[in-house]
Amino acid sequence: MTIFDEDLILETINMIKLHNFDIRTVTLTISLRDCLSEDVNIVCDKIKFKLEKYAKNLVKYANDIENDYSIPIVNKRIAVTPISLVGEACKNRDYIKIAQTLDSSAEELGVDFIGGYSALVEKGYTNGDINLIESIPEALASTNRLCSSVNVGSSKAGINMDAVLKMAETIKKSSELTAQKDGIGAAKLVVFCNSVSDNPFMAGAYCGYGEPECALNIGVSGPGVVRAAVCDLNKDADLGALANKIKQTAYKITGTGELIGRKLASRLKIPFGFIDLSLAPTPEMGDSVAQLFQAIGLEHAGAHGTTAALAMLNDAVKKGGIMASSYVGGLSGAFIPVSEDAGMIEAAENNYITFDKLEAMTCVCSVGLDMIAIPGSTPATTIAGIIADEMAIGMINKKTTAVRIIPAPNKTVGDKVIFGGLLGEAPIMPVSQLSSAGFVKRGGRIPAPIHSLNN
Q1: Which residues lie across from 115 on neighbouring strands?
Q2: Among 140, 142, 275, 395, which lies 20 to 30 A Cα-Cα from 18?
Q3: Which residue intervals of 373-436 are DSSP H helices?
Q4: Nearest CA-CA partner of 133 in 157, 160, 163
Q5: Looking at the DSSP assignment, which residues form a beta bridge with residue 75?
Q6: Residues 32 and 111 in one domain
Q7: Where are the alpha helices (DSSP H) in 29-150?
Q8: Is the dihedral of CA 45, 50, 52, 55 positive or negative?
């Protein structure tokens, strides 16, 4: 006779129903390295065939498992080989045609997003890289599900400042071409330092060169669950006990996520890749990293101590999660996107959190400056300065950092952008009015730090 643990069953139900626990994404990574051709039409045909071959049952099987286990799977996604590589062999490098092929395939397959419209240029460009980057604004404006990323720096190579300025201009143009949607093109474009090739989250997901033919990666989320666990602690519990409680909760979340991931991979008859432990918030109340700070004891996100609280949270999530899984990857930690977190939106609206404080927090968070709306009149050179600062944090600290920023067309401080869904909404935040132009226009490469010579 099977003996059920009633407390564990009730705890799992509460995690899902009361505290917004979910599988944030199942992301199928698919290599397109065998889709190269000199003819872009053949490339597109090969891409459609390859995506159909591996992803035709992704949404159906994910929905079946969601129903079987009563655990929500919020997004179903695909990540492919960086398209700058795939399109580079074409005599006519029509990257827009490839972008639209990816987008139409994603729509036919029923996935929410497809990532990999990407280039890796931390040390310099190839001709294909330049062609892809110049096509990004039009590609994002003419598609609905496509996401794009460009890696411009690393701890080994330094920071490609020519690419930093070019990406700042690309962000501006992507936003302007989607002005009727509050600049949503820029919301689907991220600039990285030390990007990881197995990240399941958008907009930065792609299938790296060392990845297998196909694999399934899982991204879990549970800031509401962690917050509830913290609130259950005795108010006098010290920070060591608090960190331990977060570790225990992350262990439970990770175990559930890996179960779902392995079941889905088995049904798809492909390898299970890894689980990303990141606490990814949503605009829903109760599903907020910022509100977790309040549970820890801060009046609001942005108070002095926020960076220390985030560092503890990030570390505890990793320590707890890694004990529950054989394969942990991706970014793993806590995200602090402004528009996608109800508590961060409130903090920004009330000026509790500033741009500089957000930058400081990125030293210890999972990614970087994420989903931040700024005035549409902000010069590209200022955006380049913002990107350069964030890339420097990643380069020096040997961590992944990123910038996903929206210069909202025709909007200024006091206005807001509204995207809906997981992308949420955000108030326009002020940026420094001091010029960065003389610095960023020097170009060249910021050399890698001394610790890059560690081999």
Answers
A1: 79, 147
A2: 275
A3: 380-397
A4: 163
A5: 25
A6: yes
A7: 40-55, 58-69, 83-87, 95-109, 127-141
A8: negative
Q: Is residue 432 part of a domain?
A: yes
- Residue range 325-350, pLDDT digits in tens: 878 877 777 788 888 888 888 888 88
Q: Whole domain around residue 282: which residue ranges?
A: 217-443
Number of structural domains (the chain) is: 2
Q: How many CB atoms lie within 10 A of CB 233?
A: 16
pTM: 0.91
Q: How far is CA 76 from CA 25, 62, 299, in A?
A: 6, 8, 36
**Residue 171 CB partners (closer than 8 Å, separation 6+):** 186, 189, 191, 380, 383, 405, 407
CATH code (residue 403):
3.20.70.20
Pairing type for strands 22-30 and 214-221 reads antiparallel
Tokens of 90: 């074409």
Closest CA to 406 of 173, 167, 171: 171
- Where b means 16+ CB within 10 Å and e means fewer, 192-226 reads bbbbbbbbbbbbbbbbbeebeebbbbbbbbbbbbb
Examine the domain organization and report whether 165 and 221 are in the same domain: no
Look up residue 179 and give its two tokens: 């002005």
Considering the domain architecture, whether residues 408 and 271 belong to the same structural domain is answered as yes
Q: Does 269 share its domain with 130?
A: no
pLDDT at 391: 96
Q: Note whether 402 and 335 are same-domain residues.
A: yes
User: How confident is residue 230, by pLDDT bands cut at 50, 70 and 90?
Assistant: confident
For the segment 432-454, the average pLDDT, to the nearest whole number, is: 90
Rounded to an integer, what distance in angstroms lies between the CA atom of residue 196 and that of residue 110? 25
In terms of Cα–Cα distance, which of 268, 270, 220 is closest to 75?
A: 220
CA 139 – CA 41 distance, rounded (Å):
17
Question: Angle, nearest 10°, between helix axes 161-177 and 127-141?
Answer: 20
Q: Are residues 355 and 262 in the same domain?
A: yes
pLDDT digits (tens, 9 = 90+) for 5-41: 445 445 555 565 555 677 888 999 999 999 999 999 9
> Which residues fall within 8 angstroms of residue 13, CB to CB, at 6 or more apart?
none
What does the pLDDT look like over 232-275, one tens digit per residue? 888 888 999 999 988 888 888 888 888 888 999 999 999 998 88
Query: 193, 209, 226 — which closes off a domain?
Result: 193
